[in-house]
Amino acid sequence: MKLKPGRVESYIHEKLEKEKLHFVLLDPDDVLPEEASKIARMCEEVGADAIMVGGSTGAEGEVLDEVVRAIKEGSSLPVILFPGSHGGITRYADAIFFMSLLNSRNPFFITGAQALGAFTVKRYGIEPIPMAYLIIEPGETVGWVGDAKPIPRHKPKIAAAYALAGQYLGMRLVYLEAGSGAPEHVPPEMIRVVKSVIDVPLIVGGGIRSGEQAKTVVKAGADIIVTGTAIEKAGSLEEARRKLEGLIKGVKR
Ligand code: 1GP
User: Fold this and answer.
1) Residue of 2, 42, 55, 225 with fewest CB within 10 Å of its CB?
2) Per residue in 156-167, pLDDT tens?
């Protein structure tokens, strides 16, 4: 059987031919379903390209089901799971970043959780999108939980080596992660060096809060940027809308 990219992956590639993309990450442990639904609708109105759902702690079970169902009711954007482990799977999502934390010290986060989740993904019929996931300093919660050996910020070649290895292992996306809420996003020089060696799309997230920062990250070579905290922690839906408008302006220019 020949494996072809699924609907969500094709959507990503088709969009990338025209522009850079912005995905909004919602953590089911931080937002209630009603809020998630409203935020998702707002994201679609403002022009985000997809909603990612996941988190390192507590983003599973009923909480995850309810949040993803609410997001699907609120918007028609693709919902992509961004799981912290095999617990982060719900039948209500469209796709899942089937990711391996390549620079973890613990094989559970490289292949273990993946094996435990694989049959669930198949049973639910969710589209798996294989992705190399790399934690860059400081790494924040996900770095600690995922037992990563975070790549030093001033060592872009190490990141590039891992990214290329991920591509050669068959992964179709590379994600550079500074960690949710990181004081600074992944350094532009590292993004540039990684981008120069890989052929698959490059996702960058963690610590991107403003349109200016989004612009810097995209200019350095990111194809897709991910923001979570900036939208989730806004004081109101209107403030979140303004934030997102600014970020998207930086991405789409
Ligand atoms: C975390 O990269 C994402 O996995 C988003 O990070 O919450 O800092 O935007 P922020």
Assistant:
1) 2
2) 999 999 999 999
